[in-house]
Amino acid sequence: MIxxxxxxxxxxxxxxxxPTDLVTRVAGRGGRVLALTDHDCTAGLxxxxxxxxxxxxxxxxxxxxxxxxxxxxxxxVGLGIDPDCQVLADGLYSIRHGRVDRAREMAxxxxxxxxxxxxxxxxxxxxxxxxxxxxxxxxxxxESGKAKDTQQVxxxxxxxxxxxxxxxxxxxxxxxxxxxRAAGGxxxxxxxGRYKIGKxxxxxxxxxxxxxxxxxxxxxxxxxxxSEIPQFAHLARSQELLASSGSxxxxxGEGGRDVGYTLPLPAGCVPVWERLGIVAGDYEK
Length: 285
Ligand code: AMP
Ligand code: MN
Ligand code: MN
Ligand code: MN
Description:
By secondary structure, this protein is α/β, with parallel strands linked by helices. It has helices at residues 19-29, 45-55, 86-96, 99-111, 118-123, 134-143, 150-156, 173-182, 198-212, 228-238, 272-275, 280-283; strands spanning 4-5, 33-36, 58-69, 72-79, 186-189, 216-221, 242-246. The protein binds adenosine monophosphate (AMP) and manganese (II) ion (MN) (3 copies).
């Protein structure tokens, strides 16, 4: 494992730790390079950066942006973004706007399976109300005994065909890549293993993404199985995409990977962090 992590979440979106607590956890574990990539929002970056500086951690501004591509939800990570860029800020606002109404509809749909008060319940797990989302509902459903953990929630609820699912139109792929580039950032396809779209569609996605100015793909992700890492390393090499590595950490004990460390990239991948000015000495002791 290397003490570098380019994908994680704080209470600014659907993580359970404040930016300060998140970075303090990384410092306690010996992490050296960190990007905070909250969903559709940059509100946690300043606090995280200040805490990282106090611990001598190299900090990279990030965001994970929600996209609707061919009726599917995809996530695009932007790294090295300027959060003050107006194009990016306006774009992210346009996505956040609508989450509260969506959450009310999700709660209304859960009533039909006998789950009351899910809106208020989910909101109790949400520090940034404009970012209310499925993870907050998942935590409430676990708390109220509807599932043993959030993984199980996402099998029984909140996904297409199950109670609490509400289709939502996020931003267009080309727009999101454009906002990230306008903000000086590098756009990266997040956790490609999650999309289950098959080789041909994946290549079409990569082609459209690159044409829009996208440059990288997550090869190592907390959402990837051991066999998916070499598979996406091959895709990165053959498509000349920069390779990224992140835990996708949300909360202690929730999901597989803790924050601050990731597996090294397979041979032949070009690490995205080299483009961000990170050298081996920044994370190798
Ligand atoms: P939203 O943006 O409100 O649709 O929420 C998406 C978030 O739900 C993701 O960022 C994950 O944190 C969580 N999520 C979605 N699907 C799953 C899953 N299968 N397992 C665990 N968490 C999931
Ligand atoms: Mn999330
Ligand atoms: Mn994601
Ligand atoms: Mn994520």
